[in-house]
Specification:
Radius of gyration: 17 Å
Number of strands: 9
Oligomer: single chain
Structural class: alpha+beta
Mean pLDDT: 88
Largest sheet: 4 strands, mixed
Strand order of the largest sheet: 2-1-4-3
Number of helices: 3
Low-confidence stretches: none
Strand content: 25-35%
Helix content: 10-25%
Length: 132
């Protein structure tokens, strides 16, 4: 049995405690528990009635930072940035996470402004930004 057929990431709803389902879509994850030395730690176990193992603990994100004259960073988040299943960002990073494909992290103000989709002020709606 291939590892990816057993070790799976599944996000069905925004609940902290997921109800897993072998019949619903899930993503193969190559990582193992930190117990086995995996830096991108993914702790999965078999739940009652399931044939596959589903991850519920480990790194919520993985990041690499290069310190130098200009700091650069890359990261990936397990799942997505939103807890709302209706959001396009609910599970938009699952495939990147499973592949170990890091994205640039924009934290220098000019980089943030250049890549902003919208700006937000508490109490106000998100204001869309022009596409550069």
């Amino acid at each position: 049995m291939p590892w990816g057929e057993i070790n799976r990431f599944q996000r069905n709803d925004g609940q902290i405690g997921q109800t897993f389902d072998d019949a619903k879509p899930s993503t193969a994850v190559p990582f193992t528990s930190a117990q086995w030395g995996s830096l991108a730690s993914f702790g999965a176990k078999r739940y009652p009635g399931m044939k596959r193992y589903y991850g519920t603990n480990g790194n919520s994100f993985v990041a690499v930072v290069e310190f130098g004259p200009q700091v650069r960073a890359w990261a990936v988040t397990a799942g997505g940035e939103s807890g709302d299943p209706a959001s396009p960002h609910f599970a938009d990073q699952v495939d990147h996470y499973a592949a170990g494909a890091l994205r640039p992290v924009h934290f220098i103000p000019t980089d943030v402004a250049a890549h902003a989709v919208c700006t937000y002020r508490p109490g106000a709606p998100c204001t869309p930004q022009p596409v550069p």
